[in-house]
Design brief:
With 279 residues, the protein is of the alpha/beta class. The protein has eleven helices and ten strands. Helix 9 crosses helix 11 and helix 10 packs across helix 11. The termini are far apart.
Length: 279
Amino acid sequence: MSGTLYVTGTPIGNLEDITMRALRILREADFIAAEDTRVTRGLLTHFDIHTPLTSCNEHSAPSVYADVADRIAAGENCAIVTDAGMPCISDPGEKLVRLCRERGIPVEAVPGPSAVVTALSVSGGSTAQFAFYAFLPADKKQKKEREAMLTEISRERKTCILYEAPHKLRTTLDDLHRVLGGERTISFCRELTKIHEEVLRMTIAEAVAYYAERDPRGEFVLVIDGAPAEADTLTLEDAVSVAQAYIAQGMSGSAAAKLAAKETGMPKQEIYKALHDAE
C-alpha cells in the first residue's frame, strides 16, 4: 500500500506558529523532504524531532524527485517542507506534488503560515482579490520577461504581491516607479512574525525616497494596490461582482456596495439594489 505525501507548513519566523498537527506529522513521517536540510534540521532540533531528512530543492535532478516518489509509493510517509512557510507555493516542491498526483500517490495538506496571505492581511490594502507574482525575473538575460511582468502588474486591477530580497529592493522600486508611476500605494511587509516585523504603507514615489536614505534589511513582501478602475470601461455587473467578493469576506451588503462604488465609480445605490435583486 502506498504511503502519503504531507505538504507541511512551517513557521515563517516565530516558531510558536507551528501547529500541533505539523509537529505530529514531522515526528511520525518516515522521512522529510526539505528545501535546505540545514534550515530544517534547526527547526527539528528546536522541537526535539529526529526524523531523517533528504534534500529536495530547485537544484535537485529529476531522479531525486522520482526516488522520493518511489519511496512513498512503496509505503513510506513523507513530509515535504520549505525553509519557511507553506511549501509548494512558488517553490520547487510543486514538482513532487505533481509527480505524486500523476502516479496516484495520496497527497495531503498540513496547513501552516504563508507569507503571501500574512502580508496581505496586515497590508491595509484591498484583500478581495489579489494576484501573486512571487519574485520578478532578476537575471540580465530575463530583461524582457521582467518588463513584461512589470507591464502586467501596471494593468492589473487586483492587489499585486511580490517577494523581494533587501539587496534588490531599490532596483525593483525604481522599476515600479518607472512602469507604474509614483502615485500607486504600496505596503512593505518586512520580517513578518519576527522580532523586527515592520509594515509600512506609502506611495511608490515616497518609497523610492524613503529607501534612498535607508538600507533595506530583511526579507520583503510587497503588496501593491491594483490599477485604478476606469469607470467608463466597467459595467454594473462588474461592480456587483466586486461587492459580492467583499460580502463573501463577511461584509454587510451596504458596506460592500460602498467599497465597490469607490473602486468602480458606479453609484452605490445601484450596486446595492442589484445585490438585492440577485438574491
